[in-house]
Write the structure tokens for this entry.
Amino acid sequence: MSYKNILIDREGSLATLTINRPNKLNALNKATISELHQAFDDLDKDHDVAVIILIGSGDKAFVAGADISEFADFSVKEGKQLAQDGQDLLFNFIENLSKPVIAAVNGFALGGGLELAMACHFRVASDNAKMGLPEVSLGVIPGYGGTQRLPQLVGKGRAMELIMTAGMISSERALEYGLVNHVVAQEELLPLCKKIAGRISNNSPVAISYAIKAINAGFKNDKNGYAQEIKAFGNCFGTADFKEGTTAFLEKRKADFPGA
Ligand code: COA
């Protein structure tokens, strides 16, 4: 499938998805959200893909937000629909993907851009990155999960301050807050993400997908994370990956997971 606003690069079991609207600082318009949904769906179903890295094109921005030009004259009804569609199609979709998604935050991650990075399973940033949720400066609030995921990641007080001030924080501050896991020079960003991806891909894809589910369940009010963990833990015992992982350990060799 060919895309207008994104690029997909494949290297073995690693897929790198690049949001490619550099002239608009990779702002998320409707078409880009729809293309990202399609691409994530395809990669999730592809047995040969183990890890996905998401990055913005150029060296200035990951994503500078939702495309303001698209919603400036929306009604209340259209505003609700915009948030609902975005959450369903992309933000919750990524969070619940069975494959790990790493956000490589290579510059501005503002508004919908930071929300997108937060929907990924974890984040690595370049040292020039700037992050924030400036929506209240536009008279609106974060609508792609930002009011929920930011407090989960950095704590309620810090999230309140960041959202109320509409301020931006540096990647160093984001590291201190736990919003990103690592900060490196821009040229080292993709190599580090790929190194982490390589380490992930040595492990059981099925067990990883269950771990994602169990961890996510703990952050949902309508789910019991411990119950989800017990169910997923039990399910692992019925997988070929578990058989291979335990057999390989007992035979003192490296596991070669079938991913089933
Ligand atoms: N939506 C639509 N277009 C955007 C955008 C967004 N969120 N962010 C940047 N752009 C566009 C600009 O309009 C400009 O387009 P143009 O050249 O056709 O005029 C282009 O990207 C470059 O941005 P510019 O503002 O000229 O770059 P800058 O280096 O001066 O400033 C930012 C960078 C990130 C500080 C600034 O672009 C900005 O504040 N963007 C909006 C951030 C925001 O509020 N996001 C939350 C949206 S809910």
